[in-house]
Amino acid sequence: MKRAGQVAAGVAASVAALAARDLIQKKHSVLRTYPVIGHLRYLMEDLRPELQQYFVERNWDGRPFDRDIRTLIYERAKGTNEEQPFGTERDVNEIGYEYLVHSTLPVEAPAQPHRVVVGGPDCSKPYSMALVNVSAMSFGALSSNSIMALNKGAAMGGFAHDTGEGGLSPYHLEHGGDLVWELGSGYFGARTKEGDFDPDLFADKAAHESVKCVSLKLSQGAKPGIGGVLPAAKVTKEIAEIRGVPQGEKCVSPPTHKVFSTPVELIEFLARMRELAGGKPVGFKLCVGSRMDVLAICKAILAVGTAPDFIIVDGSEGGTGAAPLEFEDHVGMPLTHGLMTVHNALVGTGLRDRIRVGASGKVAAGNDVVKRIIQGADYTNSARAMMMAAGCIQAQKCHTDKCPTGVATQSHVRGRVLDVGDKSQRVQRYQKATVDEAVKIMAAMGARTPRDLSPHQLRINVSATRAESYASLFDWLRPGELLDQAPESWAFDWATASADTFHPRIQDDHSRRTTA
User: Fold this and answer.
1) Residue 216, SS3 per DSSP
2) What is the structure's pLDDT at 337?
3) CA dihedral defined by 178, 184, 189, 193, rounded to 10 degrees?
4) pLDDT single digits (tens) 501-511
5) Residue 493: beta bridge partners?
6) What is the domain partition of the chain in residue ranges?
7) CB contact burial 199-235 (16+ within 10 A = b; e otherwise)
8) DSSP state of 34
9) E strand or H helix at 310, and its extent?
10) What's the pLDDT at 401?
11) What is the reported pTM?
């Protein structure tokens, strides 16, 4: 009996010591939230490859497992080995499989990664953008510690951090990372009590040294056409002050903007934003709905005579924000088509050299970066992968305020488990490793800079026996071609698009409706 008591006491002491160690350590947020029992999560990680193979052999899953992109992100963030034995786990013969074309004579990779100068002829303070940056995620959706970790990582690595539409918080500014300040239809942080745009508040905050660019959000990939919602319970005193909204009341972003209603008014407002921001680069973000919308904006740019400095294209497959399932899965253009639509519209109207294009939507690895550049982007933004680098394990508890790693919560108890110092290093390591890999891939393709890449170098299996390049599958316009004579495949959209409206009357035979 005495022996059993001693054993029990020893076990209890060991468990208590392990719990104390878990609470003190800073590398694993899960262990700080769930001391002792959190180790089960890491045990399952070790067992996962064997369990996956077990399920695949018995056809329990119904499909082969791809290489786990989460593992790649975590390993890059930790700075551990990410090479994999036994070759690809992808079915390279499946229809829809895409691959990049390497060169028989690769070139030497540049010592320093390529950067993109954002700022057209009307911009007096251009910004040098990295190939991979932190995409838009708001304080309120993310915790203060995760915002600080992302921003400090950006400061350490020399890349940009998009604030999201939730306002410019002290946590975005504390570590001095370069910011793209995003303003949505709620104008949070730059709004009047009535919810209108406040030019004086905007100018005051846009003047901050850390704000390098300003972005107007028209729509986002997860929920194009509707505004965001922050539940009343999450609108704390601090968030209410930062956003300029009432405390304890549901915070809603309207689906439409008050500052413009036509393409011309949009371009005029962007020019006003640039002036209020002291000449800093100004642009907008959208999930593309139709080619006609994009062409209407291009016509407005030509009519007004000034252009945004950048356009961020958000794919419908992207977006970390919560949204109705129908919007997530069935509304908006995927990034591939949206990106090529914007790129070609700008080329065809002679505007591409003035406007930089960013791409956002499930960008996680170096091949994603290269692929998006080929499709028309100058640089990329990543949200989900950056969250995972900061500790997110995709528990999908964001909306419950019970995030186990302190990334997506406003609970002080849960948020404090995320150590800013450790996670900022992980964010910086992940970004650097991903950019380095993209540069290596481009060099393997014979490209010293992104400008050397071509649509011929991205191919896709269109059948079981044939692959086609993006150059042959899609229309690629010549500079100014729409202004000279629009090709047949673009002619109807070009003729119908108007600088004066986002809702043109479509008079083709397919759209006419009759009533009994």
Assistant:
1) strand
2) 96
3) 170
4) 998 877 655 54
5) none
6) 1-63, 116-473
7) eebbeebbeeebbbbbbbbbbbbbbbebbbebeeebb
8) S
9) strand 310-314
10) 76
11) 0.86
